[in-house]
Amino acid sequence: MNHLFSLIGNTPLVDLSSLQSNPKIKLLGKLEGQNPGGSVKDRAAFSMIQGMLSRGELTEGKRLLEATSGNTGIAIAMIAASLHLPVTLIMPDNSTGERVKTMQAYGAEVILTPADRTIEYSRELAQEMEDGGGYVQVNQFSNEDNWKAHYRTTGPEIWRDTEGKITHFVSSMGTTGTITGTGRYLHEQSPGVQIVGVQPTDGSSIPGIRRWSPEFVPAIYDERQVDQKIDVSEDEAVAMSARLARECGVFAGTSSGGATAAALRLAEGLDQALIVCIICDRGDRYLSTL
């Protein structure tokens, strides 16, 4: 029988090439919703908490603490429940009810902050609480074990499953752990692989995709691993999520729609390619917004 943690990773690739018309371009989506917690963040959360345990950072009487927009919090709550660790999660109050209830179902305490102050205020509050004592932050934005999870797992899986034929990797940019770690691994295998980051257009609000103000850019972000950035609008991301469900049978969230939209725009300028984009979670945690 498999332990819960052994089910994290080794997610499948699904062919999404039918979304575009060039027969010489293959578009594959990596279905991270197949992880036990339902998103790509299971990889990073497991890696970060294991690192904290090995370094002795989770001493008796301390609660895990994290500011999150959703998927990381769910992953942390799932892993903390399995390890019997207390956890408090802080998130903007415009986060979907599905996300909040899922975290609470795992036993996490959830603190909601004003949406108009964004996730950046949630991060500030988490720091204040840690400074006050009794808490230790997972700190996905500066924890090196975040990107290392993808260097050890996501990148090698993609290289293996495409038989080294991948030409472009597309990922939404939030905490930037996925693109930094996967990009580093793929660049080491073949410097010619293009790593493409996806950001929201000005004024767009897309869960899981961020355009950070300079003082809040995640410390783990490595600009050298990103060869190109593509901006997508909220409307594009939502529309592409609907297309994925209705045309490909892939029910995913809006950040996945954003990544797929960016991948298709990228494909328009290419004659031949094998593009892999991250389908980072499942769509069921967005139903209340449809």
Automatic annotation (TrEMBL):
Pathway(s) annotated for this protein in UniProt:
Amino-acid biosynthesis; L-cysteine biosynthesis; L-cysteine from L-serine: step 2/2
EC number from the UniProt entry = 2.5.1.47
Any idea where the Tryptophan synthase beta chain-like PALP domain is? 6-281
N6-(pyridoxal phosphate)lysine is carried by which residues?
Answer: K41
Catalysed reaction equations from the record: O-acetyl-L-serine + hydrogen sulfide = L-cysteine + acetate
Cofactor(s) the protein needs = pyridoxal 5'-phosphate
GO MF terms listed in the record are: cysteine synthase activity
Any idea which positions bind pyridoxal 5'-phosphate?
Answer: N71, G174, T175, T176, G177, T178, S255
Alphabetically sorted, this entry's keywords are: Amino-acid biosynthesis, Cysteine biosynthesis, Pyridoxal phosphate, Transferase
Task: Give the EC class as a word.
Answer: transferase
Protein name stated in the entry: cysteine synthase
Organism lineage string: Bacteria, Pseudomonadati, Bacteroidota, Saprospiria, Saprospirales
Protein family according to the UniProt entry = Belongs to the cysteine synthase/cystathionine beta-synthase family.
One biological process term in Gene Ontology: cysteine biosynthetic process from serine
Species, as recorded = Neolewinella litorea
